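Retry 2 of 3 after timeout on previous attempt. Resubmitting structure tokens to design endpoint.
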């Protein structure tokens, strides 16, 4: 026999849904109007219904470790928006709740954008879900998710602002795992400092009581989030049993079971109501600063990667010139008499080689400068003008800052190699006469070229440091992962170019990160001893 919901207020939406499981409640899978699976875009967009311009619209980003219950939480929000009550005996969902129980490797590596524009709902909601964030595939996948957000914010149907970043955590946790800390640190590093008041905690599998241990764990992990007037973290509680059938047979008293399910329903809908009230009051934050953070981070990594290769080439060129100087020193008489002679020297050259697929699949390279401009990290763009290292159609990385049309994206990169080459004194003189002009000794010209190479090295190191400095100023989480990855290399090079103050700045950042990790490890050990 059909329920009142099936005959009445939900008849239209049920008609356009698929019954996934009959029972009490009957579970229906919502059908998306369109599923954007354009492979040129590193995100998937699923839309339910038509967007209403006159309706209030909210956008949230959901982040959490695999298994925390993000999908179930999204389903709770949908049912709240539709006004579903327990006695309606229906439950609407976008996917099987068991999806999050699957292996992390089976999940998509791109973010999914759900647009809920249902006619029966008083508001429109966009949910940006980040499946797989922090899973066993590690840093590379998390970086792809970050760049997916950047692409989404810049796309034609892009999202320019966000109302809340929702960190999803199980209520029973008494400490954050290393993976969770990494996830939340990564997310916080994506947003500008003004976004902290829009970051909230969503506790799943809750019994309705304040999760004191979990809140303490979040505070000890120094996760920045919104606070109320009493300087307490803003959080919302959810239970994950709403779709559980009321007539299933368990070794449980029927009255107790009914009471438990009613309380579960009440707790989750109360949490959703409070979350939506928060969304009504909070001012959305522009993603412009997030885009700046992401672009700076990409440019920083690309610059440092490019810098390493260029410094290597610079040092090899310096070695070549020093060998030439030694030859001239040994052949003073021939030089003085302006006689031609032959000598051997180790010459540096650039060679195109296949990419190591364990590091990256493709790279953006300049065919003019013969340099790797975006490697590793360039993985999805088709039109090279969209590449993160391009600005106003010109590269921000390669030596000559060439137009994007001079670049290629292939599974090959440039590497520096050396070979022994025979040269003559006449060739050397002609090279420098053509390059610098006559009237200056070859020895002097060699010294000038060595100084030019050193100046270029100084310029590149300083450029990389300024990228770090800018990122530290605008990022919410000041000790960003990419900064730490390149800290040792930059510190060494800054000392080589006699920039001790800048080197100390990076050393202090590195020390701060190490102290925080040590403090966290000490607390973890303390917790284990208590157990």
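Retry 2 succeeded. Sequence:
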């Amino acid at each position: 026999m059909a329920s009142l919901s099936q005959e009445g207020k939900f008849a239209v939406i049920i008609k356009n849904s698929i019954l996934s499981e009959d029972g009490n409640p009957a579970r229906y899978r919502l059908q998306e109007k369109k599923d954007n699976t354009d492979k040129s875009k590193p995100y998937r967009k699923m839309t339910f219904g038509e967007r209403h311009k006159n309706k209030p619209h909210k956008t949230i980003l959901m982040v959490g470790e695999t298994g925390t219950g993000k999908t179930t939480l999204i389903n709770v929000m949908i049912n709240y928006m539709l006004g579903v009550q327990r006695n309606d005996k229906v439950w609407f969902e976008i996917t099987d709740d068991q999806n999050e129980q699957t292996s992390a490797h089976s999940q998509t590596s791109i973010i999914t954008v759900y647009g809920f524009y249902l006619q029966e709902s008083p508001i429109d909601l966009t949910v940006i879900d980040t499946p797989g964030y922090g899973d066993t595939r590690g840093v590379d996948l998390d970086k792809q998710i970050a760049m997916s957000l950047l692409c989404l914010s810049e796309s034609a149907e892009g999202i320019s602002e966000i109302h809340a970043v929702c960190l999803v955590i199980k209520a029973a946790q008494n400490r954050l795992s290393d993976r969770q800390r990494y996830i939340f640190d990564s997310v916080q590093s994506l947003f500008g400092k003004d976004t902290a008041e829009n970051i909230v905690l969503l506790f799943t599998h809750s019994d309705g009581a304040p999760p004191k241990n979990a809140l303490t764990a979040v505070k000890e992990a120094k996760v920045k989030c919104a606070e109320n007037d009493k300087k307490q973290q803003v959080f919302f509680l959810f239970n994950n049993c709403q779709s559980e059938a009321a007539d299933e047979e368990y070794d449980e008293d029927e009255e107790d079971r009914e009471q438990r399910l009613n309380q579960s329903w009440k707790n989750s809908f109360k949490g959703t109501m409070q979350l939506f009230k928060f969304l009504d009051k909070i001012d959305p934050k522009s993603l412009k600063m997030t885009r700046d953070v992401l672009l700076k981070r990409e440019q920083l990594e690309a610059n440092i990667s490019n810098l390493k290769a260029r410094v290597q080439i610079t040092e090899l060129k310096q070695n070549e010139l020093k060998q030439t100087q030694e030859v001239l020193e040994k052949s003073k008489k021939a030089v003085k008499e302006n006689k031609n002679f032959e000598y051997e020297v180790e010459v540096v050259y650039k060679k195109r080689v296949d990419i190591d697929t364990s590091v990256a699949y493709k790279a953006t390279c300049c065919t003019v400068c013969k340099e790797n401009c975006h490697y590793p990290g360039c993985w999805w763009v088709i039109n090279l003008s969209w590449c993160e290292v391009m600005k106003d159609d010109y590269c921000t990385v390669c030596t000559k800052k060439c137009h994007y049309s001079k670049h290629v994206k292939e599974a090959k990169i440039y590497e520096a190699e050396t070979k022994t080459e025979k040269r003559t004194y006449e060739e050397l003189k002609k090279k420098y006469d053509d390059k610098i002009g006559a009237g200056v000794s070859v020895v002097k010209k060699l010294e000038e070229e060595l100084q030019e190479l050193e100046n270029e090295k100084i310029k590149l190191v300083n450029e990389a440091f300024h990228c770090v400095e800018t990122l530290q100023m605008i990022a919410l989480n000041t000790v960003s992962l990419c900064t730490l990855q390149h800290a040792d290399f930059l510190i060494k090079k800054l000392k080589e170019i006699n920039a001790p103050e800048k080197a100390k700045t990076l050393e202090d950042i590195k020390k701060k990160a190490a102290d925080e990790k040590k403090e966290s490890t000490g607390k973890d050990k303390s917790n284990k001893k208590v157990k």
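Attempt log closed. The chain has 13 helices and 20 strands.
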